[in-house]
Automatic annotation (TrEMBL):
<dbReference type="InterPro" id="IPR027278">
    <property type="entry name" value="ACCD_DCysDesulf"/>
</dbReference>
<dbReference type="InterPro" id="IPR036052">
    <property type="entry name" value="TrpB-like_PALP_sf"/>
</dbReference>
<comment type="similarity">
    <text>Belongs to the ACC deaminase/D-cysteine desulfhydrase family.</text>
</comment>
<protein>
    <submittedName>
        <fullName>Pyridoxal-phosphate dependent enzyme</fullName>
    </submittedName>
</protein>
<dbReference type="InterPro" id="IPR001926">
    <property type="entry name" value="TrpB-like_PALP"/>
</dbReference>
<keyword id="KW-0663">Pyridoxal phosphate</keyword>
<feature type="domain" description="Tryptophan synthase beta chain-like PALP">
    <location>
        <begin position="14"/>
        <end position="319"/>
    </location>
</feature>
<dbReference type="Pfam" id="PF00291">
    <property type="entry name" value="PALP"/>
</dbReference>
């Protein structure tokens, strides 16, 4: 039983799974000219138990389990200002009765409302102490000073580590269970790749089931070779934690960086089109930093005439919607 392989790891319950899988009928109708029998589904990891939901909750379940086991009193995290990871760490800390210290820096060009709204606002509402840092170089100093004599647990950047990847390995098993209920098999599972542990976890989880090369990542941060190397290292380490058979190799990792655009957090015409398309046809929200770019990649895949017919495609909706409020002018509303 693959599921028992998770037993050695402590887990803090932060949401009630499984998250729903829904078919996008209206979007399929709109894309009919290019569809060629493809069926489009979304896994609603944007819904979630606490903090406004999002994929980071699955990763935090294992990190926070570890933190609780170590008797941590304060969570310490650093990252970009509109970090979903920081917002959900703050919510998880509130749920578990821990203090939370966040050091966050603005991205180039972020000013005004973007400095105080969205994820920053929510992090503060959850009781975290948020210090705005001038830039990433101030992070080590912030971390050194944050504990103030308390037992601290430092979150990895983007909440990505082999341990947190277990959250998405478990998600792969959840998807396989849902396939049985739906009476189909997915030919491709698509997800945004930032700090890589989510895609890596999915790869490690599907490997437990003997399914390889199923997961397609779209990088929103690193160049493809770097993102692939990170994803491979995390997938292997996660696979080792699960005592999986065989080896995960570079051939199992697929990351495309063609839809990232000028950089992390910078919008592209294609990602904004994808965001509007899903909002207007399905009433679903992508986020401008991650999932809108990955969905742009999925739409490009659909337009690829070399693609097989009748594919079942699953897009993992990863959340991040609070960041929308920092992009009002880009969204043209
Ligand atoms: C963090 C994040 C991702 C990417 O997950 P990684 O494990 O960092 O690659 C995707 N979507 C959203 C909304 C996120 O917050």
């Amino acid at each position: 039983m693959p599921a028992t392989r998770f037993d050695p790891y402590r887990r803090a319950r932060l949401f009630d799974g499984p998250t729903p899988i829904q078919r996008l009928h209206r979007l399929e109708a709109a894309l009919e000219p290019v569809l060629r029998g493809a069926r489009l589904f979304v896994k609603r990891d944007d819904l979630g138990g606490i903090g406004g939901g999002g994929s980071k909750l699955r990763k935090l379940e294992f990190l926070l389990g570890d933190a609780m086991m170590q008797g941590a009193e304060v969570l310490v995290g650093v990252g970009p200002l509109q970090s979903n990871s920081a917002r959900l760490a703050a919510a998880a800390a509130a749920r578990l009765g821990l203090a939370c210290e966040l050091g966050l820096w603005p991205l180039e060009g972020q000013a005004g409302e973007a400095l105080v709204s969205g994820n920053v606002l929510l992090g503060r509402l959850f009781g975290a102490r948020v210090q705005v840092l001038p830039d990433a170089s101030a992070a080590p100093g912030f971390i050194a000073a944050a504990a103030q004599g308390r037992k601290s647990y430092q979150l990895p950047p983007g909440a990505s580590s082999p341990l947190s990847a277990l959250g998405y390995a478990d998600c792969a098993l959840e998807i396989a269970d849902q396939e049985h209920a739906l009476g189909l098999r997915f030919d491709r599972v698509v997800i945004a790749n930032g700090s890589s542990a989510s895609q890596a976890g999915l790869i490690a989880g599907f490997a437990l089931l003997g399914r390889r090369r199923l997961v397609q990542g779209f990088s929103v941060l690193a160049d493809a070779p770097v993102a692939e190397a990170n994803t491979l290292a995390l997938a292997r380490a996660c696979h080792a934690l699960l005592r999986g058979e065989g080896e995960i190799t570079a051939a199992d990792i697929r990351v495309d960086d063609a839809w990232r655009g000028p950089g992390y957090g910078r919008t592209t015409a294609e990602s904004l089109d994808a965001l509007h398309l899903l909002a207007r046809h399905e009433g679903l929200l992508l986020d401008p930093v991650y999932s809108a770019k990955a969905f742009a990649g999925l739409l490009a895949h659909l337009r690829d005439v070399a693609r097989p017919r009748n594919e079942n495609l699953l897009f993992v909706m990863t959340g991040g919607t609070p960041a929308l409020f920092g992009y009002q002018s880009a969204l043209g509303t």
